[in-house]
């Protein structure tokens, strides 16, 4: 699917008409292909292979990758709107291309020219599907606590360790993997490096997790047992840069999670609005009862505020500005809005909300992940406060 996205002075823009056409195509795809099969894949925790192929055809795996590498080169604002729209019906499938695009962003921003030429065209087309391998059993938000180690051996590195909760671990092909090349470094972040880790001997998929929500996308362990990869797969070609390469990509990741939160909040609002006008008690639709109107009023406000905060962070990202505070604010508020709106929608649905025949229970199950993924909301509040204090010293 062609777009008019361009890179001008390092700022990506898109013609509004092209953006509307793209969003219309997303809407048609959702209506025809996605909505009819959501419950089948979610309830059965079944990988949506057909939908993944269609996402590749639409260019979603190259959404934010530069056009010079075969991607769409979309600005983050357009990308966020796409994620919002899809997530308002089914959040899980956006995770399939989100983790992929964070990896691609790391390669595009920090990789050598040879790495970009080799990997980005295949990532953009969806021929290779990527992921982000940061988390370990003992290290989540505190990335510096990772224990996986890469040791240089001639023209290769040999990696040993375990990664956990890795999206696309089963069905993905390669990962931006954070490991330690100098475990004794002080401070610890100086000993961390980021590799393009493709599936080959020594890298195996371990336990696949049976999750409360976020179904159909695989989350599993990756086990490295004398996993040997060429040294030219060290992103940027220089050891010790991995921590900043990985955390730099998390700005886009947090914008994505914020956009998913917006989608969930707006989707829960849509379902609650429809149901409250259909369900009657005491001789009138429950939407006419003041108690329900109070809930809907709060839900509308939360969803709108979450959308504006997410677009604010996206615009800062597109301008090339540091936006860890803005991304953190958006991620924190939008993910909490998703939880609160889905909970309120459950209350509006009443007993029917507990039936898997109704979609609202999926929004409730999926929403809590947004408060945890890409850095907990507790950590987001600390980031926001530290940046605020730094900007307002007395």
What is the CATH homology-level superfamily of the largest domain?
Answer: Butyryl-CoA Dehydrogenase, subunit A, domain 3
Number of domains: 3
Shape: globular
Task: Write down the CATH class of the largest domain.
Answer: Mainly Alpha
Strand arrangement, major sheet:
4-5-9-8
The proportion of strand residues reads 15-25%
Low-confidence runs of at least 5 consecutive residues: 1-9
- Class of secondary structure makeup: alpha+beta
Structure explained in plain terms:
- With 394 residues, this protein is an alpha+beta fold.
- The protein has three domains: 6-129, Orthogonal Bundle (Butyryl-Coa Dehydrogenase, subunit A, domain 1); 131-243, Butyryl-CoA Dehydrogenase, subunit A, domain 2 (Beta Barrel), CATH 2.40.110.10; 248-391, Butyryl-CoA Dehydrogenase, subunit A, domain 3 (Up-down Bundle), CATH 1.20.140.10.
- It has helices at 16-34, 38-44, 49-58, 76-87, 92-110, 113-125, 242-278, 290-318, 324-349, 360-372, 377-391, and strands at 6-8, 11-13, 130-133, 149-153, 156-167, 174-180, 192-198, 203-208, 219-230, 280-281, 284-285.
- A four-stranded antiparallel beta sheet has the order 4-5-9-8, with helices on one face. Strands 3-6-7 form a three-stranded mixed beta sheet.
- A hairpin with a 2-residue loop joins strand 1 and strand 2 (11-13).
- Helix 5 (92-110) packs antiparallel against helix 7 (242-278), helix 7 runs parallel beside helix 9 and helix 8 (290-318) packs antiparallel against helix 9.
- The model is unreliable at 1-9 (pLDDT under 50).
């Amino acid at each position: 699917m062609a777009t008019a996205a361009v890179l001008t002075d390092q700022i990506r823009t898109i013609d509004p008409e092209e953006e509307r056409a793209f969003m219309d195509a997303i809407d048609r795809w959702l209506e025809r292909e996605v909505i009819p099969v959501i419950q089948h894949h979610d309830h059965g925790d079944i990988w949506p292979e057909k939908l993944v192929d269609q996402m590749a055809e639409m260019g979603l795996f190259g959404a934010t990758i530069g056009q010079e590498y075969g991607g769409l080169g979309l600005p983050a604002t357009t990308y966020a709107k796409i994620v919002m729209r899809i997530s308002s019906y089914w959040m899980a499938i956006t995770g399939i291309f989100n983790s992929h695009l964070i990896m691609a962003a790391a390669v595009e921003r920090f990789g050598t020219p040879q790495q970009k030429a080799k990997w980005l065209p295949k990532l953009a087309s969806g021929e290779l599907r990527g992921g982000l391998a940061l988390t370990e059993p003992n290290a989540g938000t505190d990335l510096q606590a990772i224990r996986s180690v890469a040791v240089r051996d001639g023209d290769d590195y040999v990696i040993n360790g375990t990664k956990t909760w890795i999206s696309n671990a089963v069905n993905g092909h390669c990962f931006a993997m954070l490991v330690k090349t100098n475990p004794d470094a002080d401070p610890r972040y100086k000993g961390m490096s980021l590799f393009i880790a493709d599936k080959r001997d020594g890298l195996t998929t371990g336990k696949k997790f049976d999750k409360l929500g976020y179904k159909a996308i695989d989350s599993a362990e990756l086990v490295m047992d004398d996993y040997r990869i060429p040294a030219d797969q060290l992103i940027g070609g220089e050891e010790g840069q991995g921590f900043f390469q990985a955390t730099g990509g998390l700005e886009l990741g947090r914008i994505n999670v914020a956009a998913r939160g917006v989608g969930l909040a707006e989707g829960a609002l849509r379902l609650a609005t429809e149901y409250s006008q259909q369900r009657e008690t005491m001789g009138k639709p429950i939407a006419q009862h003041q108690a329900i109107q109070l809930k809907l009023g709060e839900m509308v406000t939360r969803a709108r505020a979450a959308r504006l905060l997410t677009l604010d962070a996206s615009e800062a990202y597109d301008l090339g500005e540091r936006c860890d505070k803005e991304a953190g604010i958006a991620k924190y508020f939008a993910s909490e809005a998703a939880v609160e709106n889905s909970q309120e929608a459950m209350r509006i649905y009443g007993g029917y909300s507990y039936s898997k025949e109704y979609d609202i229970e999926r929004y409730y199950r999926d929403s809590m992940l947004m408060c945890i993924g890409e850095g907990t909301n507790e950590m987001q509040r600390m980031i926001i406060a530290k940046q605020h204090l730094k900007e307002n010293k007395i």
